Amino acid sequence: MLVGLTGGFGCGKSTVLKLFERLGAAVLSADSIVHDLLKREVVRDSIVEMFGPDILVRGEIDRKKLSARVFSDETNRKKIEKLLHPLVLETIEQTYKKATNLTSNLKVIMVVEIPLLFETGFDKRMDVVVVVRAEADVIRERLRRKGFSDEEIRARAAAQFPIDEKVSRADYVIDNSGSLEDTEQQVRAVWADLLRTRSQR
């Protein structure tokens, strides 16, 4: 079973992913995949061709510089998405296939954190979609503590579908506005339901 995990920027998707992992899910993060892709020579060279050599620091793509270019200009964002998204999807599908082959069946539950799940159309490849949400003031406070400016927060949010739309398209919704214990309880409930669904396959 392939589970897509998404939500708004700063909602706490990574926290929820870790909770699923503790419960026994195989997990994967699109951000981690992108981090690895940026180290590939062919990807690095393509990005340098797009944005120039000043995007590099000591021969590596500077992710902070890249983010600034991508989220401040829609044309740049679409260019980088066209380059990276097919590679991300390919990696997800290969990893899931490998996991199912190792277990010799389709009983494995893999949860994949994909911030732009709906925006990329990746949701169509998932068996189940889980959306993480949180109250706007909670999100702002969390992101400010991480060093994001209000302008950066708005730019990141503008690159995604509204959270209400994501919620309306979800199979499960986890509200991460409260305590970690509250979130964990919700994740446990979703996990129990996923296990029941898996057993019926």
From TrEMBL:
Any Pfam family the entry gives: CoaE
GO MF annotations, alphabetized: ATP binding; dephospho-CoA kinase activity
Keyword Transferase: yes
Keyword tags: ATP-binding, Kinase, Nucleotide-binding, Transferase
SUPFAM superfamilies linked: P-loop containing nucleoside triphosphate hydrolases
One Gene Ontology term from the biological process aspect of the record: coenzyme A biosynthetic process
Enzyme class: transferase
UniProt keyword DNA damage, yes or no: no
EC number(s) per entry: 2.7.1.24
Family matches, as NCBIfam families: dephospho-CoA kinase
Name of the molecule in the record: Dephospho-CoA kinase
Organism expressing this protein natively: hydrothermal vent metagenome
